[in-house]
Design brief:
The protein is mainly alpha-helical. It is globular.
Length: about 375
């Protein structure tokens, strides 16, 4: 998850703006999936039976409402692609890698965690129960504080629930860093072996989603390898993209979660990433600028939407139904636009300054703004 698909962190190489835009669109897809939160107002934290009726334009947007959660897997694949682009291409030490990750992820995580903590305290005081998630206790807060909330699946989400995907992803960052040099030496064979092992761990393991994240992450890494190998072989690239689209469509038509998650999603998302990487240098400057602008909002959209939903619900409940408000046709586009605008303000006033301050603190001689986050 996160901002900036850049092919060289701190190297000044061109940003992959279109892939960044894809990541932002995936974050917006999560907004549609979590629109159900507006119908989760009771002490059981369950959706009302009739919550589907609260989803505006459902006949046209059902795919986003029902399957928007798969955007997380797209986040992971993009991260694998970008990390390989950055760290296979140059040398970097462990300290630099850790500082970059901490500076990119932690400031906004801390701000939104504290916001959710305060808002849930208000909900508890006003309503007698917390909204969306239970597990509102010191132990779960401490786990979220150190990105450890979902290393092991136990008891469901807590506090700022969407951080679960970042929680498992940071462990895969560490795995990538450990395997970086071996994977650079072994090439495609080594990468295929890692992907296979991750898939096996995912199929036979049920206690953690870390193997799932690792599977998609290293599929993204494989996409970068394939992109580099294809180079200017445009005809071959088009043929591979067409083949991937056919395989992905076959996975969708087969039905079932396994076909969607192991066949359809990796092939379709992988084809989209490869296509965007190929046309990056040909894209109109205005399109790239818009994609980059939106891409900067990704992490803010993802981490701020639950706190802002909580704020609205604490404000309205118990006298007015948030679901009734969310059912209005005008509210959905307003919510999306508001979230993007809020995320932009968060990027400008919170994320970017905090990131540059932490990096400067760790590397006093570096120039602010020189390094770009993955």
């Amino acid at each position: 998850m996160g901002q900036a698909a850049r092919s060289g962190e701190g190297t000044g190489t061109a940003r992959m703006a279109l892939i960044d835009g894809l990541r932002a669109l995936a974050a917006i897809a999560v907004l549609f999936y979590h629109y159900m939160h507006f119908a989760m107002t009771g002490p059981d934290r369950g959706r009302y039976v009739e919550y589907l009726a609260y989803q505006p334009f459902r006949p046209w947007l059902a795919l986003l409402y029902d399957y928007g959660f798969y955007a997380v897997e797209i986040f992971w694949m993009i991260s694998g692609f970008v990390f390989a682009a950055v760290y296979f291409a140059r040398d970097a030490d462990t300290r630099e890698f850790a500082v970059n990750r901490l500076a990119r992820l932690y400031p906004l995580h801390m701000v939104t965690l504290l916001a959710v903590t305060g808002l849930q305290a208000l909900a508890l005081s006003r309503l007698g129960y917390t909204l969306f998630y239970d597990n509102y206790d010191l132990a779960h807060f401490a786990r979220q504080l150190v990105f450890a909330s979902d290393w092991v699946e136990a008891g469901g989400h807590s506090f700022n629930g969407p951080i679960w995907s970042v929680s498992v992803e940071v462990t895969v960052y560490a795995l990538f860093w450990i395997l970086r040099d071996p994977l650079r030496r072994m090439g495609a064979a080594g990468l295929a072996a890692v992907i296979g092992l991750c898939l096996l761990a995912n199929v036979f393991g049920t206690v953690s989603r870390i193997p799932t994240c690792a599977f998609y992450f290293f599929c993204g890494t494989a996409q970068l390898r394939l992109h580099a190998w294809l180079g200017r072989r445009e005809g071959l690239r088009v043929a591979l993209l067409a083949g991937a689209a056919i395989v992905g469509a076959a996975g969708l038509s087969a039905g079932g979660a396994f076909a969607r998650e192991v066949i359809a999603l990796p092939f379709l998302a992988g084809a989209a990433i490869l296509a965007l990487a190929a046309i990056e240098h040909r894209a109109d400057t205005r399109l790239r600028a818009a994609a980059q602008w939106l891409g900067d909002c990704t992490y803010g959209i993802y981490l701020w939407h639950v706190p802002l939903q909580l704020a609205l619900m604490v404000l309205l409940l118990p006298t007015y139904s948030p679901a009734a408000l969310a059912a209005q046709g005008w509210f959905l586009p307003l919510w999306i636009v508001f979230m993007v605008g809020w995320a932009r303000l968060s990027f400008v006033w919170v994320e970017r300054p905090a990131r540059e301050w932490l990096r400067h603190l760790a590397h006093p001689r570096s120039r602010p703004g020189m390094a770009a986050s993955v």
